[in-house]
Amino acid sequence: MHMTKVRAAVAGASGYAGGEVLRLLLAHPDVEIGALTGGSNAGQPLGALQPHLTPLAGRVLQETTIENLSGHDVVFLALPHGQSGAVAAQLGDDVVVVDCGADFRLEDAGEWEHFYGSDHAGTWPYGLPELPGQREVLAGTKRVAVPGCYPTVSTLTLAPAVAAGIVEPDVVVVAASGTSGAGKAAKPHLLGSEIMGNLSAYGVGGTHRHTPEITQNLSKMIDGEVKVSFTPVLAPTPRGILATCSAPLKPGVTAEEARAVYEKYYGDEPFIRLLPEGQWPQTKSVIGSNAVHVQVTVDERAGRLVAVGVVDNLAKGTGGAAVQCMNLALGLEETTGLTAVGLAP
Amino acid sequence: MHMTKVRAAVAGASGYAGGEVLRLLLAHPDVEIGALTGGSNAGQPLGALQPHLTPLAGRVLQETTIENLSGHDVVFLALPHGQSGAVAAQLGDDVVVVDCGADFRLEDAGEWEHFYGSDHAGTWPYGLPELPGQREVLAGTKRVAVPGCYPTVSTLTLAPAVAAGIVEPDVVVVAASGTSGAGKAAKPHLLGSEIMGNLSAYGVGGTHRHTPEITQNLSKMIDGEVKVSFTPVLAPTPRGILATCSAPLKPGVTAEEARAVYEKYYGDEPFIRLLPEGQWPQTKSVIGSNAVHVQVTVDERAGRLVAVGVVDNLAKGTGGAAVQCMNLALGLEETTGLTAVGLAP
Amino acid sequence: MHMTKVRAAVAGASGYAGGEVLRLLLAHPDVEIGALTGGSNAGQPLGALQPHLTPLAGRVLQETTIENLSGHDVVFLALPHGQSGAVAAQLGDDVVVVDCGADFRLEDAGEWEHFYGSDHAGTWPYGLPELPGQREVLAGTKRVAVPGCYPTVSTLTLAPAVAAGIVEPDVVVVAASGTSGAGKAAKPHLLGSEIMGNLSAYGVGGTHRHTPEITQNLSKMIDGEVKVSFTPVLAPTPRGILATCSAPLKPGVTAEEARAVYEKYYGDEPFIRLLPEGQWPQTKSVIGSNAVHVQVTVDERAGRLVAVGVVDNLAKGTGGAAVQCMNLALGLEETTGLTAVGLAP
Amino acid sequence: MHMTKVRAAVAGASGYAGGEVLRLLLAHPDVEIGALTGGSNAGQPLGALQPHLTPLAGRVLQETTIENLSGHDVVFLALPHGQSGAVAAQLGDDVVVVDCGADFRLEDAGEWEHFYGSDHAGTWPYGLPELPGQREVLAGTKRVAVPGCYPTVSTLTLAPAVAAGIVEPDVVVVAASGTSGAGKAAKPHLLGSEIMGNLSAYGVGGTHRHTPEITQNLSKMIDGEVKVSFTPVLAPTPRGILATCSAPLKPGVTAEEARAVYEKYYGDEPFIRLLPEGQWPQTKSVIGSNAVHVQVTVDERAGRLVAVGVVDNLAKGTGGAAVQCMNLALGLEETTGLTAVGLAP
């Protein structure tokens, strides 16, 4: 098939999310990479900031202005929280805007204000095509709010059980994450010397900003609100999240029944794989890929369903979802330019 | 004070537990290191197997026989599961035997058989002096069952809340651990190439052997049995466990009250530190040390108490507890030769 | 262009080299993956052994027999040293055989016997297309000896200087490598617990088997033999080699002249990038990719040229070179299915 | 022996060097820890900045003023380059001042100005007691310049060969280091996300500031100047340096002779261990300790002596040397409070 390539710009090309979008776009057969913009890094060659993007090494970052971002079919926003709304408003309704930030994820303005401490910008179609009906919502859309990394894996790991009503709506998620989710801004506690050999808890007690997003996703699946206890753990690896999720099991549900629920729910999803019985997920299997690996079991003594899911926080957890949603928005094959093959070892 | 040094033997000196006991004994002012024995490594110099124990580099491992272990005041057993009973029986009742393995930890023979698949060897005094009344049990004892690493941190992190009855007896523990807990036997999934950059779940659904030990410890604190959902996660670091623990909060309990419960419970424990409000534990703070750092909060929305604890699985989680209990058994000052100072960064 | 896909088999699909070949073939538009064989792992599903190769998870490993490997256009051998010759002999002269092992790399039988302690199997076209004239040798060949990982990066980093005669033929290479180069066989010193937080030297004093291969490559560029002092260092990362190379500078050569030599030598190579002045290579920029990043400078005081190169030992250092050479052997575009984009962070 | 404890202050207690000095002083039986000062961190509790120093968690950092540092027997300076001179001048000649910074290491003012770009502060007794005659220089001194981490291990690894004249004075040092040597100031390229899985070269071509210090040390051992080619490599581990050192061998020197030279040179040094033949150093063996492990061999084909040494850059490479020198300066037993036992795994 011969077609004109889609022209894509990336705002925030020097950060981790922007870099990942570019890494994936470089492998996308239907995309031509247009403007690359940055904040304080404008004027620098990309090769000095993202040396792994070898083919783009000579490209120079422009300032993040509407002029520079104009004239593209799709614009990826990988900006600090709170900046996407103003940019999107000026880009016009005919441009596909994919926001990798949090600004348009939450539907409840009060929740946004509680967790982010600023005015709510609005709500865009939520970029998780694996949720019921969501693929249709995203087809042809001009605006996409890419989900947060923790919500992506937590939601996908729990959704089948919650939707089927085989658990009480009272879930516990403890998710160990690599450090790239914390971004590229230099902070002492994120130094390699601090991170290597270290495991640390943060955002404990429901204070992490991804908590209301998980709650929003899961609560849509039932009549009522799902209680979510979410604890993130920082782990010494650059990429990957492993989410250990559990909830009280409804009486009499067996491991086989739970497994059947998951099989049915995700049967033909291109990027979600329910592992064979007895095999548990590891993040390494999905690094660099758009795949999500999931496993589920039942702990009879504790009376809980326990499910574990893994995702690459930068790939399917951010940049991969962005590209997947772009494909849907533009009417391309959903999986184009994406892979379910991880980089291991 | 002038005293004759205690003469200590270590059976299983080539493994991680045995090596850690030796590392700590080398810093103990009242101990003289006697026989070092190994299994298939007998005949080799310790310097080839544990090159970090520089002062012992020239010592040659002997076979693990009663002859070689006789004539010591204390014998540390760091053997594979199931081997400690026979050795201990021949050592005589006047020798202090500290078992770093699992053989004598569980009180319920049925639980042992269910999780370990062999006959129950018996039950020895449980080497967690920080539990109520346990310090007294250990004083002057001739036998010690050193707790498992996960049970140590899980129990200490949850004990105050469970004992005070501020939570329902239905706890969820997700504990990320370094790899040394898996031992030194070479297995493909423990290779550095597999471990680095990887997070993986295992023993999910209550199948890990430390589950009944956590249950046993916590259930002693209430009238009834505590339900324990325990999931271990393998993390890319050699040492350290971070346990994220939670349970449904009894109605009306505030974060301040929860904190007061913890402060009171651990007020004067030499190795347990409740961190200042708002500071969350990280494993690196306790690496190489006998310290346990704990923090607790309340998640009002989720209706749960959330507590996080960290321990060095080889130090306070194994070898440090062994030395601490030896001190108690021999009537030495409990903290001798041990430190609450971690190695960081 | 419509074409029949090339049918490829991989012998040794459960190891790191075989897994990497498969990872790359899954992204190759012109290849269909045929038989996958293993040694002791025959009969197991690939998903249990290489869970990152999600699309092949259900494929079952066959035994490594001629029957199973027959009927393919290309066969990749990722076998232990010494096994490739017998297999290749039976595959027939019309099949492209790409050997990822060492058996056919060395030209001097005496060197082979000295370093490998067995009979020399022979010499196949050496799979480093970036060497002068080598691309032509590989075009249409039926046999390829994929270079060793250390020789690939050491040779490419030093070749321009040695060939131009701006250094004495007396080079020092110290190369820090990730652990995957040591393979997937479980050995205690390669356990994650041992590797993480550790740097260790091995094969010091010219005893590493890659030494004669580096010597062979560099000596072809001059009239005489290049003296090579090679020391590998094991570093705590799964992938990547950083080679620090130096040699006494011929009198009067400036940094600018050295740089010009490198620019000219590698000007239009698709996978080799001489970094901008002042930017030094890091392995992370090339992980997962076929790229080699190189930098060179002159240390006037020490009188030496110093050049640094990086490669992904499994990608361009093994599997990527294998696919690159397959492309040449089959008359496909050399870069098909390969990327110069690394996976970072 | 009953004695009044030495009272020690640490200026720069919030950084890595200051933290390591404190970690070691906490284990020193003859030292009482006095004032702790910091720059921008003054006013904060140490527990928030160095949570591993559990017993000092409640101590609050003071400002780095003469008033705060006065009244101590020994003052450790762990300050940014260029600040030690002014502080030391005001502390008085009767106080032992141990400078962990670079200010007083170099003897040649021109070299200082070339590499550091500021005025030379002077030269203090060099804190490497293992150099010939240096132990005597340090006994009773009131000023100590603690060596750099790279110079410590490079000098100790090469000194025997250079001093004995069995190599040409033309050495090549490639040293892979953990990240803590780069300090605790937050810089993007030192983030955990950048460091993990990465190997990178820096300061190539003789531009690293430790180059003239290595040259100074080695040149004292011969009649003339030793040419030093030094390349540091940043490796993904918090601590530890492995230095691979080589030099052209004088004709006819055998491996046995080289080994004998090293044995004689370091025969009774308490912290330096020449490993048994065939065993090569690894950093993990010396982490947290004051030990240096060294091995040497001869590469006959390449005509070079190759020696490898390891050190913990923060311990023997900084804080341990500081305490060792304090012991000498105060007339205490040199090894007091220090260990040759590393923390592994």
From TrEMBL, chains A, B, C, D:
Its main location: cytoplasm. GO terms for cellular component: cytoplasm. Its EC number is 1.2.1.38. It is found in: Cytoplasm. GO terms for biological process: L-arginine biosynthetic process. Keywords: Amino-acid biosynthesis, Arginine biosynthesis, Cytoplasm, NADP, Oxidoreductase. It catalyses: N-acetyl-L-glutamate 5-semialdehyde + phosphate + NADP(+) = N-acetyl-L-glutamyl 5-phosphate + NADPH + H(+). The keyword Amino-acid biosynthesis applies. Pathway: Amino-acid biosynthesis; L-arginine biosynthesis; N(2)-acetyl-L-ornithine from L-glutamate: step 3/4. CDD domains: AGPR_1_actinobacAGPR_like, AGPR_1_C. GO terms for molecular function: N-acetyl-gamma-glutamyl-phosphate reductase activity; NAD binding; NADP+ binding. The active site is at residue 149. Residues 7-139 form the Semialdehyde dehydrogenase NAD-binding domain. It is an enzyme of class 1 (oxidoreductase). SUPFAM superfamilies: Glyceraldehyde-3-phosphate dehydrogenase-like, C-terminal domain, NAD(P)-binding Rossmann-fold domains. It comes from the Bacteria. Pfam families: Semialdhyde_dh, Semialdhyde_dhC_1. Catalyzes the NADPH-dependent reduction of N-acetyl-5-glutamyl phosphate to yield N-acetyl-L-glutamate 5-semialdehyde. Belongs to the NAGSA dehydrogenase family. Type 1 subfamily. This is N-acetyl-gamma-glutamyl-phosphate reductase. It comes from Nocardioides bruguierae.
